[in-house]
Design brief:
This protein is an alpha+beta fold and 125 residues long. Helix content is 21%, strand content 30%. This is DUF971 domain-containing protein.
Amino acid sequence: MTSNYDYLEPVEIELKRADSYMLVQWNDGHAGRNNFLTLRWNCPCAGCAGEMGSKGRLDIVQELKADESVLESLEPIGLYALRPSWKDGHDTGLYTYDWLRALCECDKCMAENPGKFQNHRLVRR
C-alpha cells in the first residue's frame, strides 16, 4: 500500500466463476487475483480458523468437499470487508480488505513471497 491512501479498498471486483478465481482492482493501483480455493482454506471465521486457542475445522481437515470452494455470492460488509457465500451454505467468514489483500495470488505478490502458501493455506510468519 502506498502512502497516498489512508485505507485499502477494492474499487472493482470481477468474478471468474468458471475458472474459480476473482480479479480485484485496488484503490492503490494493485491488480490482484484470488483463487476461490485459497480463499476458502483461509476463511477467518471462528469455526474455520479457530478461536481462543482452539483449532478450527480447517486446521483439522486435509481436503475440502467440492462445493466448499464454489463461490455463490460476494457481499460487501460496510467499508471494510467482503462476505462470500459458498455453495455448501457457509457464509460466516468476513474477509477484511487487508486480509483479502494478504491472500493475493497475482504474479507480483507470488514473486515477492514465493513461499506464501502451503496447500492453499497462508503461511504465517
